[in-house]
Write a structure and sequence with these properties.
By secondary structure, the protein is an alpha/beta fold. It is 52% helix and 11% strand. It is flat, with a radius of gyration of 27 Å.
């Protein structure tokens, strides 16, 4: 698979005498960045070991107290112990209690551990009631509160050790600062005052005019080995700049912190949260967590498999109908852009005359349509059967195979042909950060009747606000949109 071409090189920064990107690229890669990364990974690994030890010890101790030291762990007890330990560790992972952004400072780390304890308590109480298991009550009364306190104590011990390392000069967060001249000194002082947080400003870019292109900032952060970008600027003419900056820096695992006044420039699709211990706000990434990705993938597999079984005979009849109506294969295959711009072969029932792709360029030039995608309400290439299939989206049914294989999802932005994707701007390219889908917010809100800009905004709203509940709502709305048959051509 090949990647879709990236945007052209960003313009150089005009308001700085010496380009820090060129200077940084001429120097050797920062060894401290890789050393800091290894140290953080080692610290996280110690937290995992501590969490496993605490949860296992408290769970097994609770069972021993319930049954006495002479009791052997038979199969039911072993199952209960293993399930409790696995459930708790999964909750600690799902709530990101070891995320680097909450380590070392503030109460967020402790809050997440406390919430994980509440969730384990609720799930075990429900399971004990439904299964009438007396042993679970002992774990609820003794093990859960004890383990929660022990986990917090373990984090306190590890936090103290981390603070001692920071005081000796260890850098936990390597910062690239973009600031107006009158903000730079104050923000640097604020970061350095939070000694236990481990912030160190590697480079300060003084911005006196328009800010640099987001791609330029991301390249500089990567070259310096920075894991945090802090922005303290005055008013911006381009109100989308902060969102575009987050889109590019988050792709390389770099956090974005803004001054509170700049948070007003964040679009409604973005979320902000206080940065622990700092007079800054953290722009939160909408990236799907691992549990969310697992849930979405499970939904895709189950529903696509059921639909393939139900639609197998209708799909065969549609294929025979297409072959009878016009010359050519029943299924049309076309390279399209998937997740992160990777190319995959998308299948559809053929709705146009065979070989119609050769007319695409000519028709696009004649139509002079706005936006990146090319669609005509009265496309001369569409067959008689094809118009009916398109009206009710029956031509999309072969894509259930793409969903089952993992190339697509049931819900997501529609995949576009590669010549359309090459016309994307930076905003539209954001659609490629999730798997393409058979249906999406654009499709249930008007389909092809919406113009390009409206459709892109709807797709970006989905990308920034995904949830399993939203997927289920869009699937339900898809049924209504397909039965109406409006807006599709």
């Amino acid at each position: 698979m090949r990647a879709v071409p990236v945007p052209p090189e960003p313009r150089p920064l005009p308001s700085i005498g010496v380009d820090p990107l060129a200077q940084a690229e001429s120097e050797s890669p920062p060894a401290a960045a890789s050393a800091a990364g290894r140290t953080v990974r080692d610290f996280t690994r110690r937290l995992i070991i501590t969490d496993v030890a605490v949860v296992a010890a408290t769970t097994l101790t609770g069972l021993l107290l319930a049954h006495g030291p002479e009791a052997s762990f038979d199969a039911p007890l072993t199952t209960i112990a293993g399930a409790t330990i696995a459930l708790w560790l999964m909750m600690l992972w799902a709530l990101a209690t070891r995320d680097v952004t909450v380590l070392g400072v503030g109460a967020e780390e402790y809050r997440r551990i406390f919430v994980s304890g509440l969730m384990v308590f609720a799930l075990l109480a429900t399971a004990g009631f439904l299964l009438n298991v007396d042993t679970s009550r002992v774990i609820l009364i003794a093990a859960v509160p004890t383990a929660t306190l022990a986990l917090m104590l373990g984090r306190k011990v590890n936090r103290t050790r981390l603070g001692m390392r920071v005081e000796r000069g260890f850098i936990l967060h390597r910062v690239l600062l973009l600031a107006s001249p009158h903000h730079a000194h104050a923000v640097t002082a604020q970061l350095e005052r939070q000694g236990s947080a481990g912030y160190r400003v590697l480079e300060t870019v003084m911005v006196t005019g328009e800010p640099p292109e987001p791609e330029w900032v991301a390249r500089l952060a990567a070259t310096l080995g920075a894991d945090t970008a802090v922005v303290a600027l005055d008013t911006l003419a381009d109100r989308t700049w902060t969102s575009r900056l987050r889109w590019v820096v988050e792709s390389q695992g770099c956090a974005l912190l803004l001054t509170p006044s700049m948070a007003e420039l964040i679009t409604p699709r973005s979320r902000v949260a206080p940065a622990e211990g700092l007079p800054l706000v953290r722009v939160l990434s909408p990236r799907l967590s691992r549990p969310a990705r697992v849930a979405k993938r499970a939904l895709d597999v189950v529903i696509s498999l059921v639909l393939l079984l139900v639609c197998a005979v209708p799909m065969l009849l549609i294929a025979l109908w297409i072959r009878h109506d016009s010359a050519g294969p029943a299924v049309f295959r076309q390279p399209r852009a998937g997740l992160d711009g990777r190319t995959f072969l998308c299948w559809k029932f053929r709705t146009m005359n065979d070989g119609s792709d050769v007319m695409r360029t000519q028709l696009r030039e004649e139509a002079a349509l706005d936006g990146a995608i090319f669609k005509l309400a009265d496309d001369p290439r569409v067959t008689r059967v094809g118009r009916l299939l398109r009206r009710y989206s029956l031509d999309e049914l072969p894509q259930l195979l793409m969903v089952l294989s993992g190339e697509m999802s049931l819900v997501g932005p529609r995949p576009h042909p590669l010549d359309d994707v090459e016309r994307y701007d930076d905003t539209a390219r954001r659609r490629l950060t999730v798997k393409p889908g058979m249906t999406g917010l654009w499709q249930v809100s008007g389909r092809s009747d919406l113009d390009w800009d409206e459709g892109v905004l709807l797709d970006l709203h989905y990308v920034e606000n995904w949830s399993l509940a939203l997927d289920l709502v869009l699937l339900a709305r898809t049924v209504s949109a397909v039965l109406r048959g409006t807006g599709s051509y």
